[in-house]
Design a protein that fits this description.
alpha+beta, globular, Aminopeptidase, single chain
Length: about 130
Amino acid sequence: MTLELVKDKNTLETEFKEAWLKAKPLLEKAIKHQKEYTIDDIHDKISQGIFLLWPGKQSVMITEFIDFPRLRAMNLLFCGGDYEELASMLPSLEAFAKNAGATKLFGGGRKGWLRKIKHLGFKPEYIISKEL
């Protein structure tokens, strides 16, 4: 007897639609602080398999893998919702990233985030930008 582990396409599409409906309002709050992506851009990138959607009960994270010449990293692009739930989701996200060959997790955000997440092992790295 074999255990069927693969879900059919219709089930996956239904689960994605349900998860997206819950995640969308949380992401809309998170993306208002940046100009790089719209909510439709994020949906498209998830649909293309470029971004990963990490839904919680009251929270959501969006990640992507970045392959550098010397390492693979998971980039935490957006998160929104309940902070405690987001923190509890992090070990699963880290395990997934390690299993996929990532050796680094990074993300950007407003300065105040560091105070909130420093106890989770994050340290500051700085990026500079200039409008052209």
